[in-house]
Design goal:
The chain has 15 helices and 24 strands. It has helices spanning 66-75, 87-99, 117-127, 164-167, 183-192, 244-254, 269-282, 296-305, 322-326, 332-350, 365-373, 383-386, 445-462, 468-474, 482-488; strands at 15-18, 35-36, 40-41, 50-51, 55-57, 78-81, 104-105, 132-135, 144-148, 169-170, 177-178, 197-201, 207-212, 236-239, 258-261, 288-293, 309-312, 352-353, 356-359, 378-381, 395-398, 401-407, 436-440, 476-479. It has an 8-stranded parallel beta barrel with strand order 5-6-14-15-16-17-19-20, surrounded by 7 helices. Strands 7-13-12-11 form a 4-stranded mixed β-sheet, covered by helices on one side. It has a 3-stranded antiparallel β-sheet with strand order 8-9-10. Helix 2 packs parallel to helix 6 and helix 8 (296-305) crosses helix 10 (332-350). The protein binds xanthosine-5'-monophosphate. Residues 58, 60, 264, 315, 317-320, 322, 359-362, 380-384, 408-411, 433-434 line the site of xanthosine-5'-monophosphate.
């Protein structure tokens, strides 16, 4: 006979936190958001990979590329680069994150010597940059021959046909710095010589990057940065249970710090086979997350299979229609609560703490607090990050409002069949499990995440917690009735600012 869970499965919106005593020492500035990313023997050893903030970005084409990874690692979180691309392209994205040096920009406005003043003007209009290196082949890494800035030409006095080579500042009159220059030294050179930019060149005089004076303030180091032992940004990468034998080595070679099997449903032999393969070839040196599951059985299966962390959530994502198409899933709050309990039981039995990640369905900032209070060690977000400048999707104007495109990995647009693969021979997506959509554009990641984290810390203080484990221990959660949800919003007043989307936006 079929098994019935006793209680209806519930969503984050059905819970609130009840405050506990806030000691005078418990202020947001004193709160630590550090949290384990991978399994360890709690109480006996340090977690080998710890997040500085409990947020990771979703393994999605519209969310996590190398730009997002750098922006999020700067703030203390981690991106999982999307796996729905060729192995070479994904590995290249990982490598770009590992090679990234804050403040060192790969120039996108480059000239070759035989280009004309008209080309310079057009490029400036297109990209908005007035500093343009001149290289032998006009590429960002060609041999450096000179530079053109606004000081090198006067439109009123020159012909538009004039060649770049005739008015650029030539290489022998330029100040440059070698490839191993640190940001601090580069900035000193810029200040000492009153420069606006400093080209960085390798031993063969090929352009490597440019450091700009204006970027100085924004590249002071962030205390939360997620850095590896070599001071490089940390990054994760999505894999699937089809081509792992080729994909994992390429990602490891590129420098991925952790991989995660990206699947809509993770309680499967294919996930175990993938983990087995990683263990056989890399032992514990390669960290691998698995999922997604929504109950204790699924968690235990993946924990016993050797997963380093387990993702929780099916069908709760903003772009997901798995529950509608297949009738599979569970309310996210109930799934997290049950899996957290299973994680704690597994820890008691084995001494191994396997972190869990609540994936999908975070609509408001306070949902992050709820997910953590319910036992998640960290959360994965798609919609939240898709709204920012750093996400790879297009920013478009819809009915007078800026939006970013955001689509599910199971949508016809993504066609990520490996994510929904059930071991058959067919390599295509037969039916959709996600939609293509817009989300309101929200500006730079940093501005938004600062507010989100301050809210989280403030909530934790209300519950008397200075750390996430303490929060999980002390949190008191209460179910809310539908009328108390109405009571919790602004009500019985006429709102002055009634902008559409306000109530749907994370804020
Ligand atoms: P949010 O709510 O943060 O959810 O936008 C992101 C998570 O949703 C999952 N995901 C999908 N689930 N169909 C699904 O059923 C899809 O097309 C799809 N694409 C992504 C995924 O777990 C992600 O992290």
């Amino acid at each position: 006979m079929a098994y019935y869970f006793d209680e209806p499965s519930r969503t984050f919106n059905e819970y609130l936190l009840v405050p506990g005593l806030t000691p005078a020492t418990c202020v947001p500035a004193a709160v630590s958001l550090k949290t384990p990313l991978v399994k360890y023997r709690k109480g006996q050893e340090e977690c080998p990979l710890t997040l500085n903030i409990p947020m990771v970005s979703a393994i999605m084409t519209a969310v996590s590329d190398d730009h997002m990874a750098v922006a999020l690692a700067t703030e203390g979180g981690l991106s999982f680069i999307y796996g729905n691309q060729s192995i070479e392209d994904e590995a290249a994205m990982v490598a770009r994150v590992k090679d990234y040096k804050a403040g060192f920009v790969t120039s996108d406005a480059n000239l070759s010597p035989d280009m004309t003043l008209a080309d310079v003007v057009a490029l400036k209009e297109e990209l908005g940059h007035s500093t343009m290196p001149v290289t032998d082949d006009g590429s960002a890494h060609g041999k450096l021959l000179g530079i053109v800035t606004g000081r090198d030409y006067r439109l009123s006095r020159m012909s538009m046909d004039e060649k770049v080579v005739d008015f650029m500042t030539p290489r022998d009159k330029m100040i440059v710095a070698p490839a191993d220059t640190t940001l601090k030294v580069a900035n000193d050179i810029i200040w000492d010589n009153k420069l606006n930019s400093l080209p960085i060149v390798d031993d063969d005089d090929h352009l490597v990057a440019v450091v700009f004076r204006k970027d100085y303030d924004s590249h002071k180091s962030n205390p939360n940065e997620m850095l590896d032992d070599h001071k490089r940004y940390m990054v994760g990468a999505g894999i699937n249970s089809r081509d792992y034998a080729e994909r994992v080595p390429a990602l490891v070679e590129a420098g991925a710090d952790v991989v995660c099997i990206d699947s809509s449903e993770g309680f499967s032999d294919w996930q175990k086979m993938t983990i087995d393969w990683v263990r056989e070839h890399y032992g514990d040196a390669v960290k691998i997350g698995a999922g997604n599951v929504v109950d204790a059985d699924g968690f235990r299966f993946l924990a016993e299979a050797g997963a380093d962390f387990v993702k929780v959530g099916i069908g709760g994502g903003s772009i997901c229609i798995t529950r509608e198409t297949k009738g599979i899933g569970r309310g996210q709050a109930t799934a997290v609560i049950e899996v957290a309990k299973a994680r704690d039981e597994y820890f008691k039995e084995t001494g191994v703490y396997v972190p869990i990640c609540s994936d999908g369905g975070i609509v408001y900032d306070h949902h992050i607090s709820l997910a953590l209070a319910m036992g998640s060690d960290f959360v994965m977000l798609g919609r939240y990050f898709a709204r920012f400048d750093e996400s790879p999707s297009n920013k478009v104007m819809v009915n007078g409002t800026y939006m970013k495109e955001y689509w599910g990995e199971g949508s016809a647009r993504a066609r990520n069949w490996q994510r929904y693969d059930l071991g058959g021979k067919k390599k295509s997506l037969t039916f959709e499990e996600g939609v293509d959509s817009y989300v309101p554009y929200a500006g730079p990641l940093k501005d938004n995440i600062d507010v989100t984290l301050l809210k989280l810390k403030s909530t934790m203080c209300n519950c008397g917690a200075l750390t996430i484990p303490e929060f999980q221990e002390k949190a008191k959660l209460t179910l809310v009735s539908s009328t108390s949800i109405v009571e919790g919003g602004a009500h019985d007043v006429l709102l002055k600012d009634k902008t559409p989307y306000v109530s749907n936006t994370i804020h």
